[in-house]
From TrEMBL:
Pfam families: ABC_tran (PF00005)
Domain of life assignment: Bacteria
Organism: Piscinibacter sakaiensis
PROSITE patterns listed in its UniProt record: ABC_TRANSPORTER_1, ABC_TRANSPORTER_2
Record domain ABC transporter: where: 17-245
Family: Belongs to the ABC transporter superfamily.
Keywords, comma-separated and alphabetical: Amino-acid transport, ATP-binding, Cell membrane, Membrane, Nucleotide-binding, Transport
Keyword Ribosomal protein: no
The protein's name in its UniProt record: Benzoate transporter, ATP binding protein
GO biological process assignments: L-amino acid transport
SUPFAM superfamilies given in the database record: P-loop containing nucleoside triphosphate hydrolases (SSF52540)
Keyword GTP-binding among UniProt keywords: no
Length: 247
C-alpha cells in the first residue's frame, strides 16, 4: 500500500466524521481489522470493494449497529464510539439502508413527515416541498402506502426521509441495487443534487466507475482493511484498483 494514497494521511479540513482503528466482529468472525475513515463537511466519499469485504459492516459500525466493535469514531469531534444508532442519527448522520427502510403501512406523506426534524444549528433548508421538488415521483404518489410503491420509488422515499432529517452526512448503501436503468439514473441525479447542496455523502455502489466519477475521495476495502484511498481521480488511475475490485 502506498503511503501517498493512504486514506488516513489525506489532510481533512473541518472533519465531520473521523474513525480510527475500527474493528468489528460477528460472533467469532473478525470482519474489520483496523479501518480508518475521515469525511469532511460537504465531501462525497466512495466506499469500494468486492462482495463480502466489509463495506456494509463498516457502515453499520459507524452507525452503532454492530455491537462487537472497537476503535474510535467521532462526529464533529464528539466521541460516538459507543453511541447507539438513534444517538448517531441525532448528530446528523442519516442512513439509507440496502433494504430501503420505509414504513409499508404509512403513506408517502406520513413516511416523510414523521422523519422531519431540524438539523444542526436549527437548519431547515430541506422542507417537504423541496424534497417533493427533488422527487416529482413522490409528489405523484403522495397518498399511496409505502408498501404500494415500486422498488425505485421506495428508494426515493428512503432518500427523501433522510433529507427530511436535515443531515450533515447521508450514507447510501447500494442505493441503486436491483433498479431499472432509468431509475438508477434518477437516483444518481439526486445524489448529485445532495452533493451540490453541501451535504456530505458516503456512497457504496457496485458501479465503481460512477462512484469514482462522482466522489471527491474513495476508499477501497479488502478483507476488512482499507488497502487504497485518496482523491477519487488518483484511485481511479491506480494500477492496483482492478485487482482489488476483482476486475
Ligand atoms: N450479520 C452477519 N453475521 C455474520 N457474518 C456477517 C453478517 N453480515 C456480514 N457478515 C460477514 O461479514 C463479512 C463482510 O460482509 P459485508 O456485508 O460487510 O461486506 P460488503 O463488502 O458490504 O459486501 P456486500 O457487497 O456483499 O454486501 C462477510 O464475510 C459476511 O459474510
Amino acid at each position: 500500500m502506498s503511503a501517498a494514497t493512504h486514506p488516513t494521511r489525506t489532510a481533512i479540513a473541518e472533519p465531520l466524521l473521523e474513525a480510527r482503528g475500527l474493528q468489528a466482529w460477528y460472533g467469532s468472525s473478525h470482519v474489520l481489522h483496523g479501518v480508518d475513515l475521515a469525511i469532511a463537511r460537504g465531501e462525497t466519499v466512495g466506499l469500494l470493494g468486492r462482495n463480502g469485504m466489509g463495506k456494509s459492516t463498516l457502515i453499520r459500525t459507524l452507525l452503532g449497529h454492530v455491537a462487537q466493535r472497537e476503535g474510535r469514531i467521532a462526529v464533529f469531534g464528539r466521541d460516538i464510539s459507543r453511541a447507539r444508532p438513534h444517538e448517531v442519527a441525532r448528530l446528523g448522520v442519516a442512513y439509507v439502508p440496502e433494504g430501503r427502510g420505509v414504513f409499508p403501512n404509512l403513506s408517502v406523506r406520513e413516511n416523510l413527515v414523521m422523519a422531519a426534524r431540524p438539523g444542526r444549528d436549527e437548519r431547515r433548508d430541506w422542507p417537504l416541498e423541496r424534497v417533493l421538488d427533488t422527487f416529482p415521483r413522490l409528489r405523484e404518489r403522495f397518498g399511496h402506502l409505502g408498501g404500494q410503491l415500486s422498488g425505485g420509488e421506495q428508494q426515493m422515499l428512503s432518500i427523501g426521509r433522510a433529507l427530511m432529517t436535515h443531515p450533515e452526512l447521508v450514507i447510501l448503501d447500494e442505493a441503486t441495487e436491483g433498479l431499472a436503468p432509468k431509475i438508477v439514473g434518477e437516483i444518481w441525479r439526486v445524489i448529485g443534487e445532495i452533493r451540490a447542496s453541501g451535504i456530505a455523502t458516503l456512497i457504496v455502489d457496485r458501479d465503481y466507475r460512477k462512484v469514482l466519477a462522482r466522489s471527491d475521495r474513495a476508499v477501497v476495502l479488502q478483507k476488512g482493511q482499507a488497502v487504497l484511498g485518496g482523491a477519487s481521480a488518483a484511485v481511479a488511475a491506480d494500477p492496483l484498483l482492478g485487482s482489488f475490485l476483482g476486475l
